[in-house]
Specification:
Helix content: 40-55%
Number of helices: 11
Largest sheet: 3 strands, antiparallel
CATH class of one domain: Alpha Beta
CATH architecture of one domain: 2-Layer Sandwich
Strand content: 15-25%
Shape: elongated
Structural class: alpha+beta
CATH superfamily of one domain: Elongation factor Ts, dimerisation domain
Distance between the termini: 49 Å
Strand order of the largest sheet: 1-2-3
CATH topology of one domain: Tetrahydropterin Synthase, Chain A
Order of helices and strands: HHHEEHHHHEEEHHHEEHE
Amino acid sequence: MSISAQDVNKLRQMTGAGMMDCKKALTESNGDFEAAIDFLRKKGQKVSAARADNATAEGIIMVAVSSDKKNAKLLAFACETEPVSKVDDFRKLAQGILDIAVAKSPASKEELLALNLTDGRVIAEAIVELTGKIGEKLIIQNYEDVSSDQVVPYIHSNGKLGVLVALKGVNGKDVTEIGKDVAMQIAAMKPVAVDKADVDPTVVQREIEIGKEQARAEGKPEAMLEKIALGKLNKFYKDSTLLNQDFVKDGSKTIAQVLDEVTKGLTVTSFKRIAIGQ
């Protein structure tokens, strides 16, 4: 059947898909708009599957903090190329997803994907639809939900790196300033854990074995290897656990000491660091 330019434009306005895609969808569905929309959605699914192995090294990180500063949501919405990360539809969908995360507080990325946007579409399906329209793989790379006495966010200037810091023992103070300093330290220094006790035991064992091998290669006596390795492990804790790291702004103090000076007992209970493409 003949498909008019008016019908094509109408479907384009309804779906946001390209003109040629809309014309093909209407032709394949004999002018039935509902069937044409289904056709476009199916096309999106095919595009999504075809690009499943593509790297998503670009995108946007967004944050929402509750009015009492006790909760924050961090979302990383990723795509393949930088131009797409700047597309209005891409950013609108990311914001819509974050808004639903704030409203519903899902416990995981999987729960978030199953929720409905305000327009009724399931988030996972909306991502597939936009994939079909844009022609790139789109994913929710990360979703984090953090609560504490106060949660402080930091988004790096490029919009592709984000941190949440959960602080406790605030003693009624607003600790946003020091919280941001700590978040920036996390962004730059990439600690593996908050404190020594939080380091994965497999990581600890690996560091000990590496320390032994290094000492052995230096010709140290076998009887001293364990002691030398434990010394290297303490250096690892100093460099790689947040509370034991030297404060970037004042190397004479650790993060733990700086926090305690702000208000007695102030500390970090957890942090989340996410970067697009990592």
